[in-house]
Design brief:
This protein is of the alpha+beta class. It folds into two domains: 67 residues, no CATH class; 53 residues, no CATH class. Helix content is 24%, strand content 24%. The chain is built from four helices and eight strands. A three-stranded antiparallel β-sheet has the order 2-1-3. A three-stranded antiparallel β-sheet has the order 5-4-6. A two-stranded antiparallel sheet has the order 7-8. A hairpin with a 5-residue loop joins strand 1 and strand 2. Helix 3 crosses helix 4. The radius of gyration is 19 Å and the shape is elongated.
Length: 156
């Protein structure tokens, strides 16, 4: 079955996201990128314009060429995290020093840690336990557990 390559452009800030989809251009698919979907949730899909770059059987190859030629991963105006046509956690390389994938700082009882893992090791508890405590904002028992940074936004 054939597919297509698309490019979404945020009309408010010019940022873009490219991807491909196995299907037709009118089947309602928007995209699966993490950063792109967060932007759609923030700005609304009505503030994005979709451009169809290619339709046909070679859509994956065309997408990969497009992402590589535009250096999507390195472009600060791109929502793409990889220069690869296969998204998600499929063994593709995502460097830990990518600013969009930086670890979140954590504050526990006023002590600041560089990551949830570091805080968990300090208090000798499992990572998942520490992470869930940091997300329990309404639970008074864990009110001193805070995630300080999310992606590249700092919350004070």
């Amino acid at each position: 079955m054939s597919g297509y390559v698309y490019k979404w452009v945020n009309n408010l800030n010019g940022k873009w996201y490219s991807g491909s989809h196995k299907g037709t251009t009118d089947d309602g698919y928007t995209g699966s990128g993490i950063c792109f979907n967060r932007a759609v949730n923030k700005y609304g899909i009505e503030n994005f314009t979709r451009h169809i770059l290619y339709e046909g059987d070679d859509y994956r190859m065309i997408e990969k060429l497009h992402l590589e030629s535009h250096k999507a991963k390195e472009d600060k105006n791109s929502y793409n995290l990889k220069n690869d046509a296969i998204g998600g956690r499929t063994g593709g390389e995502i460097k830990s020093d990518d600013s969009r994938r930086s670890q979140r700082k954590v504050s526990v009882n006023g002590k600041i840690f560089n990551s949830v893992k570091e805080a968990a090791e300090y208090y000798n508890i499992k990572y998942t336990t520490m992470y869930s405590r940091c997300y329990r904002k309404l639970d008074k028992k864990y009110k001193n557990y805070k995630l300080l940074e999310r992606w590249h936004t700092t919350v004070y």
